[in-house]
Amino acid sequence: MKSSNNTTPDALLDEGHGKPIVCGGCELLCEDLTTQSIKSGTGCALSDNWFSHGELQPESMINGKKVPLTEAINTAAQRLLSSRRPLITGLVSTTIDTIQIACTLAEKLHAAVDANAPETAILTAPTAIRIGDVTADFEELRDRADLAIFWDCSPSTNFQPFIKRFIRPTPQNNFRHTISIGSTSLLPPTSHNLHFAVQKDDLVSLARMVQARLEQKASRKLSSDLGNIADKIKESIDNALCIGIISSKTADQTGLVSWSLSHLTRSLAHQKPSFGIRLNAEANVGGGNCAGASTVCTWRLGAPGAIPFASNAGSEFLPAETDAQRLIEREEVDCILIIGRIPSRIEDSMAKFAKQKTVIHVSDTFPLPEHGNSIRLGCASLSHSTEGDMLRSDGRLISLQPFATSQQSSIQKVLNDLLDQVTVETRRRSTP
Ligand code: SF4
């Protein structure tokens, strides 16, 4: 197959015809796309966006001028080492291997690291981590749960594709009931799809009341409406064989809803097969490997993100203080290395606050307005031509299935070359 600098992704789509393709557009990492569906529209706006952005042969540039990749890498290494405080962000549109290289680079530079996951931007992020969750993979929910409870989930997020893939199919025991708790019903209300309108302020009390009923303990006397809802939920639970509770990770800023749901799920799991599944409230976070980014950062640096200075001896974890967006907006970093596609929240912050900063972007796209000090390291298309694994948010490892060739180096290779150059330059600077 021939490629040229003008080659568009569409021109190369036929290469992988018929092969199932993985979409890295969000944490669901759907594995059932085809080149045909990518051409004609996948029916998922986020997925169409994931495949339509990105060039197969992106150029490398310094301050808007095309340069060879090696020159861009050399300059990027110099700027990173001269920086007073660099930040490494992005990551969620890239593979596990790439994130590992990014962590090694962060250690060498003592850089701040944050993939801009919504959880690291809220103060109570560690609450659910401390309690621990009983969880299962999405297919377990699809195949086994005859009762799915949506706890304060909003239909405007990636819950609709989730429903299509994991709730609508019939479970093995042949029928599924759903309950939506919150302001809106996730499914059209019927006798099998119940909806209980519950205010946000009452969500914790409701979870505690349901748990008290399950454990046959007395609970605090609250409104009879809430008590009636707790009775109906308990009745549905009694009639079910297997229960999945689906919630969104960041809808709850206090952490108390997560805490009360984790306790409820654990109590339920002592009585019958039950588990919780948490999805991002915000579907478009720049890519589907949020779980991979937080897992690799935890394993390598000791925290999932919001790391002020990376260290393999264990880094501090300062959620809502050193997350990428706040570091940029407080103008505490003078060099921003974005690995992979830019999450929209970071793009907005950079447009307002990062005009004077050095911005180094390793990616197949470059949607930023021109920055005075910008370096682009072009790499092969992340959606079409990248090999490697991503981690789905339920912990399942998903291998990407590249279906178009690129003459550009992969993102792993470009980042590795940058790491090598930083090592060489560090040695040169420390030699008298
Ligand atoms: S739901 Fe997510 S992973 Fe699935 S096709 Fe849409 S963007 Fe891609």
Overview of the structural elements:
The protein is α/β, with parallel strands linked by helices. The protein has 2 domains: 56-117 and 286-430, Rossmann fold; 126-279, Dimethylsulfoxide Reductase, domain 2 (3-Layer(aba) Sandwich). 35% of the residues lie in helices and 14% in strands. It contains 14 helices and 14 strands.
Order of helices and strands: HHEEHEHEHHEHEEHHEHEHHEHEEEEH
Backbone structural class: alpha/beta
The distinct ligands, each listed once, are: iron/sulfur cluster
Total domain units: 2
Side by side, the strands of the main sheet go 2-1-12-11-10-3-4
Shape type: globular
Number of DSSP E strands: 14
- N- and C-termini, Cα separation: 50 Å
Count of separate DSSP helical elements: 14
Q: What's the mean pLDDT score?
A: 87
What are the SSEs and their pairings?
Blueprint: H1 35-40, H2 45-52, E1 60-62, E2 65-67, H3 69-82, E3 86-90, H4 96-109, E4 112-113, H5 126-131, H6 138-144, E5 147-151, H7 159-166, E6 177-181, E7 193-196, H8 203-214, H9 224-239, E8 243-248, H10 256-269, E9 274-279, H11 290-301, H12 324-329, E10 335-339, H13 344-353, E11 358-363, E12 373-378, E13 389-391, E14 397-399, H14 411-430
Helix pairs in contact: 3-14, 4-11, 4-14, 8-9, 8-10
Bound molecules: iron/sulfur cluster (SF4).
